[in-house]
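pipeline: protein-struct stage 2 | run 1193 | Cutinase
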Amino acid sequence: SSTANNITDNTGCKELTYIFTRGTSETGNMGAIIGPEVVSDLKSLSSNKITVQDDNTNMGTSGGSTMTSLVKQAISQNPNTNIVVSGYSQGAVIVHNTASQLSSGEIQAAVLFSDPLKAELANTLDSSKVKKFCATGNPVCKNGSDVMAHLFYSDDTQTAAQFLVSAVSFKILSRTQVYSLSYEGRVQGNIDNKKQLYLRLVLWYI
């Protein structure tokens, strides 16, 4: 589907909330280039414990205000949810505007695809909670000349989803995924520490 409105329809209230803003002229409010693939990966990684809301406003202050309102609405519906946001092209600009309007702790992570501003996000988030993707040759986020590079990010969507999930509570992950995270080196420390952490996380999940 190219549309998702779990927040505005009040049909979510899951452990993870994902708010995405599409690129210019994409269909629906999810678009086709980034949104559906990231959502599919997030559903898989979170065992479908996810609320999805997309935003079809244009870039600018009004776009940031709309996403900000969606974040506030998600918090009011479920104060315990973990909110992560993402934007593609003009949507990345909206994420910038949103971050500047929020307080620390209201969103837990952000991913930007093809960011025209080529700038750091506002201090709402620590830099370790922000990830950017810009394809080689993309004239929008780099000084490239390959227009087609702006349209192909399918190889990055799973990495983006994994980053967003790893940035929030391990409790939304399945035991298998926690095991994977601890033993693939995403949790730092020696082997003994990883084993102990894995056991603690499994007990927490149960």
